[in-house]
Design goal:
CATH class of chain A: Alpha Beta
Strand order of the largest sheet of chain A: 6-7-8-3-9-10
Radius of gyration of chain A: 18 Å
Number of domains of chain A: 1
Number of strands of chain A: 10
Strand content of chain B: under 5%
Largest interface: A-B, 31 and 26 residues
Number of domains of chain B: 2
Helix content of chain A: 25-40%
Largest sheet of chain A: 6 strands, mixed
Strand content of chain A: 25-35%
Structural class of chain B: mainly alpha
Strand order of the largest sheet of chain B: 2-1-3-4
Oligomer: heterodimer
Radius of gyration of chain B: 30 Å
Helix content of chain B: 55-70%
Number of helices of chain A: 9
Shape of chain A: globular
Structural class of chain A: alpha/beta
Distance between the termini of chain B: 29 Å
CATH topology of chain A: Rossmann fold
Largest sheet of chain B: 4 strands, mixed
Number of helices of chain B: 19
Chain lengths: 243, 391
């Protein structure tokens, strides 16, 4: 469960995020949609405690990101845009490192790693150094690392960026599975079709502010457009940034 | 706190696998002993050869002064004709020294006037100094000898000429002459410590940012300061390893090289002295890791960090280089300057001078204190947003 109220952040004179509010309930997929540079990643970075909000607040499972960052961090799994694997460590060692940083250890950790390796079908690469992995292989390791502590809230920053068709499909299936497990899933994207196919709720951000918020049907009704893409253009007021 | 250990263990594993980096670090640790050993061997050899061999003196116009030549030959000097242009031969380094006897020498000599000769040499050429000094001494000896003879002939006591007699009491033992070389030793030791830590730190800080793995790492539930501390102390074993390699290298060099033959002195670098120098240097290990962690965390890329760190290692080792030429007394204030105090203490150990316990303690405490302050600044840097945004 993620709640955001009036979140703002600026870098120098640039107001990256202004007064952003929304909530992402458990068991639903919430998509942050917006053109490039709209403030999606900055919003996400404040949610996962990397940046401090200037004003407003955000709670993850009731814990404030500013007041209790450690509680927040142990309740979220984040797949950042940069995968950032350690190339001299094997897949298993990469996953284990983050597991241990979450306070897991011993047999419980090893069992969890093994089940993730089976789940993501990565047995063949589990004990290879991640140097030279394909984008899809790296993504699998990064996902396993994100979920090693079984977080209730999963934040994904542009999860399908740079993936081929098969990997994109696998990624979508995976996001849907998380919803089935009752997780709160929040992801950013600038790809209309992806958001339309997956999301229960869409938050459209443009120039740092929320311009629309609701289910795909709500958005179509609000704008009077049949097509979600047209609705999106109507909401942000231009075709800028659409891919 | 256990999570600091997790960071530490991961960085050790990661960096051990990056063997090219730490092998390069070890090379720096051996650089000092090899360079110093080479210098001692070269200089030792040139001193020894010059003393043993007869002085070869190229002379131009030898026929103008048969008496002087006979005197030189009596002193085991091998006289040979000088090249046509003695000055350019000296400049080119073909000969160390040349004697030019002008044609009016005989005339002036017979008339009892001051007869001039020219000695051509290059006073900046260290390897020629022995030959130059011997030639000068022989000529002055001859001049004095003839002068005394002339005074005696006129019935004047030779003592008239000797108003003051100088008795030289040189307190420099042969060992302390050799120690001019050894004064450079602290410089190499500190250099090795910094170079042992820098590849690990560069990879763990600037490298982490460059790979994009810093963001995912910092999202894990642990205080960011612990991340900084874990990274800092992961470089400590590598720096300590380099320190041990360097000290072992110096000990080996002093054992293998026939120091007594080369420099005429015995250099003691016993296990006891080695251990003491190791313990004195240990606080520098922490300082090297702390300072480099801080600096490298500011750098956006490993390349940028690579341009800063060599300077950081150079600054604290520079006073040590100066110590080779400007001796400083081991007063308390010198111990207040981290790394400088240790360099003086190492020098004292090598000279087997008595060492005050208070000096050791003060230098160690001050160095560790500075390390803690620097670590604190690094922690603050990690807690801020600059580490993420790079702004």
């Amino acid at each position: 469960m993620i709640q955001v109220q009036g979140l703002s952040k600026s870098f120098g004179k640039v107001k990256a995020v202004q007064d952003v509010s929304f909530s992402a309930p458990d068991g639903q997929i919430t998509g942050l949609l917006g053109p490039n540079g709209a403030g999606k990643s900055t919003t996400l970075r404040m949610l996962y405690t990397l940046l401090k909000p200037e004003s407003g607040s955000a709670q993850i499972d009731g814990f404030d990101v500013r007041q209790s960052p450690l509680e927040v961090q142990s309740r979220i799994g984040v797949l950042a845009d940069a995968r950032g694997l350690y190339s001299r460590l094997t897949s298993r060692e990469n996953i284990r490192y983050f597991g241990r940083l979450h306070g897991l250890s011993g047999e419980a950790l090893e069992n969890k790693i093994n089940s993730l390796i089976v789940l993501l079908d990565m047995q063949s690469i589990a004990d290879r150094k991640t140097e030279g992995f394909s984008t899809g292989e790296k993504l699998k390791v990064a996902i396993a690392r994100t979920l090693v502590h079984d977080p209730q809230n999963v934040l994904l920053d542009e999860p399908t960026n740079g993936l081929d068709v098969m990997s994109t499909r696998a990624m979508r299936q995976f996001i849907l599975r998380l919803r089935e497990e009752g997780k709160c899933v929040l992801f950013t994207s600038h790809i209309m079709q992806e958001v339309a196919a997956l999301c229960d709720q869409i938050v459209i951000i443009s120039q740092g502010t929320v311009t629309a918020n609701g289910s795909p049907d709500d958005l179509r009704k609000q704008t009077g457009k049949e097509n979600l893409e047209d609705a999106f253009v109507a909401v942000i007021g231009s075709e800028e940034g659409l891919v | 706190m256990k999570k600091i250990l997790v960071i530490f263990q991961k960085e050790i594993l990661d960096n051990m696998r990056d063997y090219r980096s730490w092998v390069t670090g070890v090379f720096w640790a051996l650089f000092g002993p090899l360079l110093l050993g080479g210098m001692i061997m070269l200089l030792g050899n040139s001193i020894r050869e010059n003393v043993d061999e007869a002085l070869v003196l190229p002379v131009s116009g030898a026929e103008n002064a048969p008496n002087l030549i006979a005197f030189l030959e009596q002193q085991d000097v091998v006289i040979k004709p000088a090249p046509a242009d003695p000055e350019s031969a000296v400049i080119a380094g073909d000969i160390n020294v040349a004697l030019i006897i002008p044609s009016d020498y005989g005339e002036n000599f017979s008339a009892g006037e001051t007869a001039k000769v020219q000695l051509v040499f290059d006073s900046t050429r260290q390897s020629a100094m022995v030959d130059i000094n011997r030639a000068q001494n022989l000529l002055e000896g001859y001049s004095k000898y003839i002068g005394l003879l002339r005074l005696s002939l006129r019935g004047v006591s030779p003592e008239v000429m000797q108003v003051v007699q100088i008795e030289e009491v040189d307190t420099a033992t042969p060992q302390s002459q050799a120690l001019i070389f050894l004064s450079m030793l602290p410089y190499f030791i500190i250099f090795a410590i910094f170079n042992g830590a820098s590849p690990v730190i560069t990879d763990a800080t600037a490298g982490e940012r460059e790979r994009g793995s810093l963001e995912p790492l910092l999202i894990n539930p642990l205080p960011r300061g612990w991340v900084a501390i874990g990274k800092m102390i992961s470089a400590v074993p590598f720096a300590t390893f380099n320190l041990i390699i360097t000290l072992a290298g110096f000990a080996t060099i002093f054992r293998i090289l026939p120091m007594e033959e080369l420099l005429g002195v015995q250099v003691g670098f016993s296990i006891g002295a080695l251990t003491s120098v190791f313990l004195i240097c240990l606080p520098i290990v922490f300082l090297a890791c702390a300072i480099q962690t801080l600096i490298a965390s500011f750098a956006k890329t490993t390349k940028e960090a690579g341009t800063y760190l060599p300077f950081i290692g150079l600054i604290p080792s520079l006073p040590g280089l100066a110590l080779a030429f400007l001796p400083v007394k081991p007063e308390l204030w010198t111990m207040l300057i981290p790394t400088f105090g240790q360099q003086i203490l190492i020098n004292q150990f090598l000279r087997s001078e008595p060492i005050l316990a208070v000096n050791i303690i003060v230098s160690a405490v001050l160095t560790i204190l500075l390390s803690i302050i620097v670590t604190y600044v690094a922690i603050k840097l990690y807690e801020g947003e600059r580490i993420i945004t790079g702004r």
